[in-house]
Amino acid sequence: MVRWLNDYGFSEQVLEGEGYNGVAFLDHFSIPCDHFRPELEALASQFEGKISFYQVDVVESPSLTEYMAVQATPTLILFQEGQEVIRYEGAYSREALQEKIQEAMRTAGQNRAT
Asked: Where is the Thioredoxin domain (predicted)?
């Protein structure tokens, strides 16, 4: 399940959160974002229990969008323990995102072990 997030919950849920958090910055008026939403839901199902996924409406949360320096929609940012691990701008396919997320999680896990 992908939960909605805004300026007020971002710090608590993501920056101060534990584990992995994926945050998608989306625009309701964007066709690429409309196509990306089902991919995001599928990723949330696939990584359930490993990554908490959130979506932010860039129109409703402009200060958060600016704070995170989001330049395009959709943008998906993966955080680990509140730190940005990877950022993807554009409507990637679910398969491409799966691979990139799994690779980032492996790399982050290796970095924590050293």
From this structure: 1-106
